[in-house]
Amino acid sequence: MPKQAPLSWKARGWRWMKQWWQDIVHGADPFATLTAILALFTGLIGIMGAFNLDYGGAPTGVILLDFGVALCLGGLAWWMFRQQSAMWPRWIVVAVLTLACFYVLATIPSDAAVVVLTMLPILMAMLASRRWWPIAFYPLSVTIVASLHAGGWQVFTPAIIAFNILEFLMLWGVTSQAVQFAKARVKTEAQLSKEQQVRQFMRFFQHELRSYSNSLDVLLPMLNQQLSERPALEQSTIQPQELVSVLQSTADSIRQLTTELLVLTREGQLLPQQRMPIQLLPLLQSEQAESQAEMQRHGLNSTIQLACPVECIVIGDALFLRLAVHTILQNAFEALLRYPGEGQIFIQVEQTAQQTTIVIYDTGKGFPNDLLDHLNQAQSLNQALGWTTKIGGSGLGMPLIRHVAMLHGGTAHFSNRPEGGAQIRLVLPQV
């Protein structure tokens, strides 16, 4: 595949400016970008002062202040780019600019600087908070500047005050529009994500039901033939009991699928009426016996070891927890089936005053690394869907386990044990 030619610095600069403008128009917070621009501007002013290009003979203290403010603003901008939700660097920017502006106005007797430097801290405070209230500090800012500046109150003509107020109103209009765009974008993205998740659910559901439907399409004619030709029943190689068994298995699979989809479509956490005290040991013993019997039917010579305190009680929904444990055990013995041997499955429960931890692991080959990365890095149910290690699998099992833990306010972690084998840890809070 041929390598793409690197972009020129002009193309990169134009793309950066275009992206920055789109961020402002479509609602992204431009505060970090404006801080970076102010850092560059302040650094250029310091360079001009150092080479006597400002035609004013700026004092050495002001030049050093320019470089110091430029470094400080640059570091704060980098901080905000790395942590976009952090508020502390925003208010530090406002404080640094306020002190620097007052110092410059007290040092340089320039009437033109008053117009910008008096309102700059308030403008940045409005951008940082996205609120009107920083305008209330404008009279205080004017009073401080009048007491520091050589021109006193005479520099604040009605035209300057009107210009500053107009700038406040324009900035607030742009900021309000940006906030509205941001809210609309978040709402639209959430709606699209939800619709995408629904479509993905429907695709999985359709895939699974098509498989079961094909099985029924094959079984039903055979069953009809068996019932219509009763004299030939004894000579048939297929016994009615076998057909009934397959039909029952198919019905159980459809019931399991609909239950999984019922759980996966729940949002938030369990309702108060769903939070009931559950004796965990009988629940695990029931799933242990059922999975052990199924392993024996498949000819798997393995055992399931259970270690759980007798009086262990968890708060939650028994159906959801049973489904999660069943799914874990099902995946464990299916993994052992792919590598026949004397594999073992272990269930261990630890309980403290704060949480109950259910650890289920086996002695098989473990999870594929890419599956672990996919499950542990997914930030939502929609991202966790779609990965399966089984041919024809729906990819609902692992996301279901995570979702059950989330519905109970807990977490699910997937890992491989150093000794070998896959391990799933369910942590449920004691609420």
UniProtKB/TrEMBL annotation:
This is histidine kinase. Pfam families: HATPase_c (PF02518). The chain crosses the membrane at residues 31-51, 63-81, 88-106, 112-128, 159-179. It comes from the Bacteria. InterPro entries: 2C_sensor_his_kinase, HATPase_C_sf, HATPase_dom, His_kinase_dom, Sig_transdc_His_kin-like_C. GO terms for biological process: phosphorelay signal transduction system. It catalyses: ATP + protein L-histidine = ADP + protein N-phospho-L-histidine. Residues 204-431 form the Histidine kinase domain. Keywords: ATP-binding, Kinase, Membrane, Nucleotide-binding, Transferase, Transmembrane, Transmembrane helix, Two-component regulatory system. One of its GO terms (molecular function) is protein histidine kinase activity.
